[in-house]
């Protein structure tokens, strides 16, 4: 499907170590007219950015082998006009500022859907992207954060509870429930 908003070069680099997420996003972005290439590490992302710098990029902030901002810097050096969105499961103001300072076009918290990513990639400088159609509920955001910390602690309930400053039994009850909408 051709998308006239993409311009003459629809190349898109997706850098994320969450294999299922990057596969889903790649498929959705291809349907929107992008020519997608994926990477699952900083090293792989930098290699692609050096060899074939894309017009667009979506880069996860925290990757197993380092910081996604290194990929952003490499891409900025090779193709200064590229539009880059940084994704992260940790929405912190300090990292958002750092990402924008080194050249990211936008900064989004995970999980982001393909429509939000496309809007961020194609937004002009003076135009703010529209608010999300169906933002996550506060309960869902809390649940996503707990799940992310739980995974980072290698599914260790005691360690997760300690890091979240939460009683272990309370955490076990939350983990046993289904995810909120």
TrEMBL record:
Gene3D superfamilies: 3.40.50.2300, Homeodomain-like. One of its GO terms (molecular function) is phosphorelay response regulator activity. The modification 4-aspartylphosphate is found at residue 60. It comes from the Bacteria. InterPro entries: ActR_PrrA_rreg (IPR047772), CheY-like_superfamily (IPR011006), Sig_transdc_resp-reg_receiver (IPR001789), WalR-like (IPR039420). Pfam families: Response_reg (PF00072). NCBIfam families: ActR_PrrA_rreg. One of its GO terms (biological process) is regulation of DNA-templated transcription. It comes from Cognatiyoonia sediminum. Keywords: Activator, DNA-binding, Phosphoprotein, Transcription, Transcription regulation, Two-component regulatory system. This is Photosynthetic apparatus regulatory protein RegA. Residues 11-125 form the Response regulatory domain. GO terms for cellular component: cytosol; protein-DNA complex. Member of the two-component regulatory system RegB/RegA. Involved in transactivating anaerobic expression of the photosynthetic apparatus. It is a transcriptional regulator that is responsible for activating expression of the puf, puh, and puc operons in response to a decrease in oxygen tension. CDD domains: REC_RegA-like.
């Amino acid at each position: 499907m051709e998308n006239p908003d993409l311009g003459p070069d629809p190349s898109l680099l997706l850098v994320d170590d969450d294999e299922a997420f990057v596969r889903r996003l790649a498929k959705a972005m291809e349907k929107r007219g992008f020519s997608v290439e994926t990477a699952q590490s900083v090293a792989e992302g930098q290699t692609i950015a050096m060899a074939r710098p894309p017009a667009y990029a979506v880069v996860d902030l925290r990757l197993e082998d380092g910081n996604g901002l290194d990929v952003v810097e490499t891409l900025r050096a090779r193709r200064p006009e590229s539009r880059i969105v940084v994704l992260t499961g940790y929405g912190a103001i300090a990292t958002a500022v750092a990402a924008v300072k080194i050249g990211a076009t936008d900064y989004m918290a995970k999980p982001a859907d393909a429509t939000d990513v496309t809007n961020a990639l194609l937004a002009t400088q003076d135009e703010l992207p529209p608010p999300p159609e169906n933002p996550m509920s506060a309960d869902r955001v809390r649940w996503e954060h707990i799940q992310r910390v739980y995974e980072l602690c290698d599914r260790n309930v005691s360690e997760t509870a300690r890091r979240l400053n939460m009683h272990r039994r309370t955490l076990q009850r939350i983990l046993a429930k289904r995810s909120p909408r």
